[in-house]
Design goal:
single chain, mainly alpha, globular
Length: 295
């Protein structure tokens, strides 16, 4: 399956927000890190956190844990460069963490307009394994090249919370909790002794065909092998056969639309969010295909 990179560039020019256009340029080696950091700084608040729709389905301006994930994605992509904003984000996450080390799914919203119900209706008083997993996993990928993030106490406490909660799971978790837990275990596999056993245990919840329906999602919303294990050489690749990974790479490549971009299968919440997700998911698709040797 051939990817039309010129069509991707055209799609990004016509549809994507500036941040994702800069990220795509960085992936293609067409720009340096300064423009990407300047773009993500547009979503940054004085407290060191991020809001303003950096998470496309959460439009409120204040800093939110869900937006922190996407900021860490940028700080991973600029490697081997580092940015002081990354450790400042760890400081902010520490300031909003619960006593057990986790972070809430969402914090109080200044405005609920155009925001998904799962963000609006979240319990602000308890830690969320789902959002702590995915945020800490992204931070660990930054920590691989940023010693200040690696040494930050927030990351150690959040990781401990996640590992304890994963170990306590006594039934199949929601699909996104399952996938984000696997991301976290991949990220700490070489530093946390219990990660290997927990990864094997979680793998038992993935159907043999590697495709898992998202409970409560749209009719077309499933997680596939690359949603659990997007990158080669990660420990979670052992949960799938090479044939499953190859077939899923074919599926991902085939999802390029006629306009050059990718789309998402989950619920569309607002016109702005739906369009912004397309740009972000296109960057992610190109990144996964490139790392897996398809580009």
């Amino acid at each position: 399956m051939t990817i039309e990179l010129s069509a991707v560039a055209d799609f990004m020019a016509g549809h994507a927000r500036v941040l994702d256009r800069r990220r795509f340029q960085l992936l293609m080696g067409e720009t340096g890190t300064a423009g990407v950091l300047a773009a993500v700084d547009g979503y940054r608040n004085p407290d060191g956190g991020y809001g303003w729709g950096l998470e496309p389905d959460l439009r409120s301006p204040e800093s939110q844990p869900g937006a922190a994930l996407h900021a860490f994605e940028v700080f991973e992509e600029i490697a081997p460069a580092t940015a002081p904003q990354a450790v400042a984000l760890c400081d902010w996450l520490q300031s909003v963490s619960c006593p057990d080390g986790g972070v809430p799914f969402a914090l109080p919203l200044a405005t609920a307009a155009a925001t998904a119900p799962w963000w609006k209706d979240a319990d602000r008083t308890v830690s969320s394994l789902q959002i702590t997993n995915v945020t800490a996993a992204a931070a660990h990928r930054v920590a691989a090249h940023d010693p200040a993030v690696a040494a930050h106490p927030w990351l150690a406490r959040a990781t401990r919370y996640c590992l304890d909660q994963i170990a306590a799971l006594d039934e199949a978790p929601h699909a996104y909790i399952l996938s984000f837990s696997i991301w976290l275990l991949d990220a700490v596999h070489d530093t946390c002794p219990e990660a290997a056993e927990l990864l094997t245990r979680l793998g038992a919840h993935i159907p043999a065909e590697g495709k898992l329906r998202v409970e409560g999602g749209t009719d077309d919303e499933f997680l596939h092998p690359l949603d659990f294990s997007p990158y080669p050489d990660s420990p979670s690749r052992a949960l799938f056969t090479p044939e499953q990974i190859s077939a899923d790479l074919d599926r991902l490549a085939a999802r390029q639309q006629d306009d050059g971009g990718w789309t998402v299968e989950y619920a569309k919440i607002s016109p702005a969010g739906a369009l912004e997700w397309r740009g972000a998911s296109t960057v992610r698709a190109i990144d996964i295909l490139r790392r897996n040797g398809r580009i």
